[in-house]
């Protein structure tokens, strides 16, 4: 009888080779199904989706399979151009109450807003519109938003009014954070906050990291919409942004939320507190 000096792990691997191959095939099909619904997912979010579905699999195995099958995300290669609404001191400049303390354990305690450009059309005939969301920093949920062709004060006020009007009765005051854009210095903006007994907070001038949470959101949205598709009209890009925000709120899982979407996380955590 011939003895082969073979490591025990290798021996058992080949003993179960066919079973492992079948398991890989099943996993590949599951990963492809996840990627079909979420084309921008990298291996970390795919791993979390698998975990949520009851799969017992190592994240390194998921990464290996996605590399072998060419299923990696290609959504985050373009750089976004930042819209700047600063026009000098034209109204009230509020203190930076948030001071980059983005985390909170209470829903609706810290909200943040900002405006970004969304572009459509060919390079020779490129057009732009503007998006302003209101984000709850508790879960990253977008509470309201507006999309329009002109970034006016009224354009900015509309989603703020909708978000504040829908807030439940809270045992603490809400803070709304923004940059120093002309819309946020306007007396109408300040009045809206005062009427709802809300604190106003502003980033320092030309310091985008003071509103890093919203900058990150804009990067995600653009990487998974306007950078992937060539929209040809305002209606197309506006609908795509609205659809993506709904997907982001309700279905797009986040690692820091334990593999849950923003809405799912809020519902689960507030139910536990109640």
From TrEMBL:
GO BP term (any one): DNA integration
NCBIfam families in alphabetical order: transpos_IS3
PROSITE patterns the UniProt entry points to: INTEGRASE (PS50994)
Superkingdom to which the source organism belongs: Bacteria
GO molecular function: nucleic acid binding
Integrase catalytic domain residues: 103-270
Native source organism of the sequence: Neobacillus massiliamazoniensis
Protein name stated in the entry: Integrase catalytic subunit
A Pfam family it matches: rve
Function: Involved in the transposition of the insertion sequence.
């Amino acid at each position: 009888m011939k003895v082969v000096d073979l490591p025990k792990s290798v021996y058992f691997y080949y003993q179960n080779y066919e079973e492992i191959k079948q398991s890989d095939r099943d996993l590949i099909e599951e990963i492809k199904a996840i990627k079909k619904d979420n084309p921008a997912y990298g291996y970390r979010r795919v791993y979390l989706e698998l975990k949520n579905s009851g799969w017992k699999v190592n994240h390194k195995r998921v990464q290996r399979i996605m590399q072998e099958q060419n299923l990696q995300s290609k959504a985050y290669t373009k750089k976004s151009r930042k819209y700047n609404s600063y026009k000098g001191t034209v109204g009230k400049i509020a203190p930076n109450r948030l001071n980059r303390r983005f985390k909170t354990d209470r829903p609706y305690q810290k909200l943040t807003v900002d405006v970004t450009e969304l572009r459509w059309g060919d390079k020779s005939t490129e057009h732009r519109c503007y998006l302003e969301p209101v984000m709850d920093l508790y879960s990253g949920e977008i509470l309201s938003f507006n999309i329009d062709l002109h970034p006016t004060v009224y354009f900015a006020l509309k989603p703020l009014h909708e978000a504040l009007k829908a807030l439940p009765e809270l045992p603490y005051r809400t803070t709304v954070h923004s940059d120093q854009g002309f819309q946020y210095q306007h007396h109408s903006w300040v009045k809206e906050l005062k009427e709802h007994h809300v604190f106003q907070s502003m980033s320092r001038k030309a310091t985008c990291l003071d509103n890093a949470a919203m900058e990150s959101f804009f990067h995600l949205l653009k990487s998974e919409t306007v950078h992937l598709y060539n929209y040809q009209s305002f209606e197309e890009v506006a609908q795509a942004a609205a659809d993506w925000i709904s997907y982001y709120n309700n279905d797009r899982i986040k690692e820091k939320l334990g593999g849950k979407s923003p809405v799912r996380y809020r519902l689960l955590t507030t139910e536990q507190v109640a």
